[in-house]
Design brief:
Structural class: alpha+beta
Helix content: 40-55%
Radius of gyration: 34 Å
Number of strands: 6
Number of helices: 11
Distance between the termini: 92 Å
Shape: extended
Largest sheet: 6 strands, antiparallel
Strand content: 5-15%
Length: about 300
């Protein structure tokens, strides 16, 4: 006949399991468990805890869940609603067919043809172009006064001597202008391609596709046909967010090389210009004697085979 244990023996007078209860096992089992408790080292356990397979799996599941549940950044097109640009509901193929640069005539509605990276984070409210222009124009005026003073004081001296005197001032001027652009977050810039009319459609197609697919920069534009049988090279601008972000500037250049749009070994190469300089009218042969471009592909690709 099987022995039974009364409720009083099992639970004790306080209603909790008694230490004498068979719930904990027989005497040998209790002794083994008590020994385990005495020898247990929590420090060792927690030092190994992060590397347990079950813990790593749980962490990965948590990351995956967070990624899938986080809101996706909405697509953005700064040119939405403009007939001279790709629209979000338009495929790249449809856009290229609608606005081929070779035969699209320049006009008030089509001064340029644009395409944007819909995943780019740059927004017009992120920078203050107006404030930059005001500050930069004052800086240029100050330089012009200093330049005139030096030229007047050195009248009759060799041009090379005057140039040597102005060179450090020009360097300081460039640094000030770029610093002001950074301060006002007006930091966009572009690599400039000059395909022939015969190549403009094919090269623009590569740029447009890569821009939309997040392989290049924030946006791109191409010059339409100016008419009158113009056979001059067309300008394609490939924009990046920040002229001082050399990793990104070089990354975009390398992708242009991969696309076959830039040759790694080319004495002429292509050039990168800050939009701040474009807006200030700092072009080749400008009155301040500044270099119009910041970087040359042959310098950034130099030494690479």
């Amino acid at each position: 006949m099987t022995a039974t244990v009364s409720n009083d023996e099992e639970y004790g007078s306080n209603g909790y399991l008694s230490s004498d209860s068979s719930f904990y096992g027989d005497a040998d089992t209790k002794a083994e468990l008590e020994e385990r408790c005495e020898n247990y080292d929590p420090t060792r356990y927690w030092s190994n805890h992060p590397y347990l397979v079950s813990v790593m799996a749980a962490a990965n599941r948590a990351k995956s869940h967070a990624a899938s549940s986080s809101p996706t950044r909405p697509l953005y097109n700064p040119y939405e609603g403009r007939i001279n640009a790709r629209q979000l509901n338009e495929t790249v193929e449809e856009f290229l067919k609608r606005l081929p640069p070779l035969t699209t005539s320049v006009s008030r509605e089509y001064p340029w043809i644009f395409v944007a990276n819909p995943h780019a984070s740059l927004r017009p409210t992120d920078y203050d172009q107006g404030a930059f222009m005001r500050d930069a124009e004052e800086t240029l005026q100050e330089f012009t006064k200093k330049k005139s003073g030096i030229e007047s004081s050195m009248a009759g001296k060799a041009k090379a001597s005057i140039t040597r005197k102005l060179t450090p001032l020009r360097k300081t001027l460039e640094e000030k202008l770029l610093a002001k652009a950074k301060e006002k977050r007006f930091t966009s810039g572009k690599w400039m391609l000059f395909p022939s009319p015969d190549d403009v459609n094919s090269q623009w197609a590569l740029v447009a596709e890569a821009t939309v697919n997040r392989e290049l920069g924030t946006a791109a534009k191409v010059a339409p046909d100016s008419g009158d049988g113009d056979r001059n090279p067309r300008l394609i601008c490939v924009y990046t967010k920040d002229f001082s972000d050399m990793d990104d500037v070089k990354r975009v250049l390398e992708r242009l090389v991969e696309l076959g749009l830039v040759k790694r070994k080319d004495d002429r190469g292509i050039y990168y210009k800050a939009n701040a300089f474009t807006e200030l009218g700092i072009n080749a042969g400008n009155e301040w004697g500044l270099k119009a471009s910041l970087y040359a592909s042959k310098d950034l690709l130099g030494g690479k085979k």
